Amino acid sequence: MQNIYHSDIYNFKKPVDSYWEETTKENFNLHKLTKDVSSEVVIIGGGYTGLLCAINLIENYNLDVILLEAGKIGWGASSRNGGFCSFPPIKTSFKKLQKIYGKEETKKFFKNAVEGSNFTKDIISNYNINCDVTGDSNFILAHHPNKFKQIREQAKVYKSEFGIETEIYSKEEFDKIGHSGTEQFGALSYKPGFAINPLKFVNGIARYAISKKLKIYEHTLVNEIDKIDASYILRTKEGLVKTKKIVVATNGFYQEGLVPQMNSRILPVISNIIVTRKLTKTEIDSHNFKTFSPIANTKNLLYYYRKLPDNRILFGTRGDFIGSDKSNLNRSKIMEKFLKNIFPDWSSISIDYNWRGLIAMSQKLTPSIGKIENEEIYYGFGYHGVGVSSAPWTGKQLSELVFSSNSKDLNISKIYKGLPKRFIFPKLRIFYFRLAVLFYNIKDKLNI
Length: 448
Known about the structure:
Shape: globular
Helix content: 25-40%
Radius of gyration: 21 Å
Order of helices and strands: HEHEHEHHEHEHEEHEEEEEHEEEHEEEHH
Structural class: alpha/beta
Number of domains: 1
CATH superfamily: FAD/NAD(P)-binding domain
């Protein structure tokens, strides 16, 4: 199978060295597959999507399910993201969605996005997960004065078209309830929204799944899928799994070549995160950083950041183009400069953690949920960096789809349904992305 980035980013043997891994210790004592087994459904990928799909298949349909994870449970983006429960999971404007799909489907899409955020909150409550929930909304921050008009219009549309609770804050108002800084010129808040510790969240889901007798095999990489008569054979290094149905829930860490119909449709993009040392009260007060709600700014290549419960600052943005450990370290140094340019009073504050992961983008610029034509293979991916709210909800939708085997039965916006187009000359995907980043960098410098 082919990988797009350096092998360092696909090191399934150990978790990424993140703040979450350092501060969250839990071992489920799960084992790798060591023999041939069979099941009604096999799920590839042990993150939010795969786990929620499995739980719902067991609880609602009483199906026999096996879940295979190439690393430890939640090894991918589910355990290393920034913990932002925000929406919608798109990389395009609602105006473009309306132009392509129409007003009603766009409204339904946003309704589903809100459902996703609420579903994540329900999981935390129903599964009794202690995952350090903070904040009660999401902020979109105008990073330049001419962006304030844009977010004011966005707030108006969110409220009038989609029924989303919004509020606008001037620069002076956000100075008092949010923070100050060199790139703060007012903000929009929307609900529902909050922040979590993503590793505690995925561990809580896994704990619940195990209590429902889900069979999970960690460190079990699927190398090949064969079809024999009406059954599929999933081949791993140590054993085979025979099944009638397969769910691919690997998102940005999808291994090219596994399912031919899915190849060349996913653009994995590196996202990097840094976390500061603990800040003192005086340091926090120097920029009046009061809010614990997650914040994203209006840049095309956006910054996203938040205050953690122990008064560290988490800061994330687009990552490097290589994926090696060295390129990750180099990118973290650049990001440190970004952070300190915004918050100059923190110029001497050290960075304690840096890591990265892959988000999944596609030409649809929205998530994709569906079934491979003429096969019993199902997929859910393409959260565009908004997986905390959309991936668990997608897992639930996939369970309904797997049970019925008919995507027409799935009562969600058609914007979600179906595969995105393939990339032309797929080996050039990173080159295309480099060109896009160059273009957006120019737009950001010109503040357009």
